[in-house]
Input
Amino acid sequence: MFSVVSNKWAALAVLCLGTLMIVLDTTIVNVALPSIKTNLGFSEASLAWVVNAYILTFGGFLMLGGRLGDLFGHRRIFLIGLGVFTLASLACGLSTTQWALISARAVQGIGGAIVSAVSLSLMMTLFTEPAERAKAMGYFGFVAAGGGSVGVLLGGLLTGTLNWHAIFLVNIPIGIIVFIMSLYLLPKIHQRPEKIHLDVAGAITITLALMLAVYAIVNGNEVGWTSLQTLGLLVVAVILLATFLVIESRVRSPLIPLSLFKLHNLATANVIGIFWAAAMFALFFLSALYLQVVLGYSPLAVGLAFLPANLIMGFFSFSLSAKLVNRFGLKRPLSIGLSFAALGLFLLARIPLQGNFLIDILPSMVLLGIGAGIAFNPMLLAAMNDVEPHESGIASGIVNTAFMMGGALGLAILASIAAARTASVLASGASPTASLASGYHVAFFVGALFALLAAILSATLLREKRVAQSHSY
Output
């Protein structure tokens, strides 16, 4: 029998480990892409699908995964998603052809979306006392925010010491351990609806809308933002989204109750999350490329460069973030944390061509670690605190979708800005390395503006809801 009092922190550890495995996969692959390209004979264009196939299905199935958890039980759906992700990871690791790897990555994205959509719901079910929930969210938030940079480090280690297959096969033992522990530790608490009715039409339209939107965004730089393909896909996605909203306003049991969007802090936190995710993707992806391409770092050195940010982020998430929320509420920690992150990105925009790690990179990593460590906890709490338990799955799906779409759109915008600036500087006669550096500098600057805008929105629009004081620390 599950004991909420005795086992909830152990259950949180299981959820964090499962979430970490999913988050790692969004960045761990990037360091290994050159090895995958050489080994399987990918072209530059086709290589992008190793990443895009995962992003496409992950972004498309978040809403559906969250709603399935509300209807059939978050624990059951978590286990199904975890099983799908683990088996797909095995298929990725054993792949010997391009299509086998891309297909397995797409299935992996579906499993990852399901796990991500219900993990936050399970955590909210486990911790109902406000102060404890804030503390638990600190742990969960660190995994969600810091896992991406851990993936860069782990990807460099595994690819450098073993091979690219290892970045996928490492998920197998972790997945098995999490699955077994979940059977014993995760609660079976589920308020089963009197009549289970899945909004099939809503599920199909929103999933297709999200997948088409993600596809258009991730390919926008390659085919052109004003091309018929990109504009056509975005128009179809908007039409499908409008159709989805009409369906939701009329069906008896909607996939997403539109009343959720009337929750002010949920809606505000998702808008903030879109800009914050855009800024974070600038850190994870563009800075890793900058360190390798411009400064000549090895994959392992890139991973180690992210280590200070991870350690600082962990310290603030585990030790201070919950205390700050308990004492000052949500607005001030969130806006201050986002401001620190913005300052860190502004500093990245001035790294010289022969940058020194201690002088030019470490200060940015410290600021980004502090900012993310402080901000992620209150952002998730703002989004989830006012949601009823029976709707926590779909609310979690909305939160994850906002982050996913913000990250994908932000990365596409920043990569496009960097490419345009690089081409302009190169045409003026500058060296290729100097041109690339100039492009990345502009992208970091815009990423910093995204983080600053998120900080301003949190300070002005978020409604304060102070968490009860606790002396349990």
The chain has two domains: 4-198+255-461, 199-254. DSSP finds 17 helices and no strands in the chain. Confidence is low (pLDDT under 50) at residues 1-5, 467-473.
